[in-house]
Amino acid sequence: MLDRLQTFFQSVMQDHPKAIFAHDDPRVAMAALCFQVMESDGVVQDVERDKLRAILKEQYGLEGDQLDAVLAAGQQAENEAVDYYRFTNDLKRHLDETERQQLVGILWDIVYADGKRSEMEDHAIWRVADLLGVSGRERITQRQEAAQRAGLGATDDAL
Predict the structure, then answer these.
(1) Residue-by-residue DSSP string for the chain
(2) pLDDT digits over 109-128, tens only?
(3) What is the pTM (predicted TM-score) of this model?
(4) Which member of 6, 79, 99, 158 lies 3.0 to 4.6 Å from 95 by CB, making a disulfide possible if both were Cys?
């Protein structure tokens, strides 16, 4: 009987390996915020997911299983979240002002991955930026820079 239970628990753990990232890991918080922004317009596209993978790889040097694990942890954290506060609070403890501004720029990069932005995405980033202590002026500057990186002109960026 004990052998069967042990075998059962081992098989369950193989399908759901132990998390390698702490719940307050800034990489998980960043991924979770990106998922929240991606989902804010009701449509998550593959190009947005690909952009997030590229950003996490570039920002944190993650690849392979580690990259998949942080994405899974971020998605799970986002699914369990009721608001942005948990993630922005974690990130405020780990990031300085410039890094928080850059994070807002990264969120805009995720928005523009599909070539357009919605009112809901604007609202999500406004709330996140506010909670991170990033000024409205800097949020708009980051948006404009992200639009340029995405190859969009000023008229394409306007809502």
Answers:
(1) -HHHHHHHHHHHHHHSPPPSS-TT-HHHHHHHHHHHHHHTTS---HHHHHHHHHHHHHHH---HHHHHHHHHHHHHHHHH-SSSHHHHHHHHHH--HHHHHHHHHHHHHHHHTTT---HHHHHHHHHHHHHHT--HHHHHHHHHHHHHHTT--HHHH--
(2) 999 999 989 999 999 999 99
(3) 0.82
(4) 99
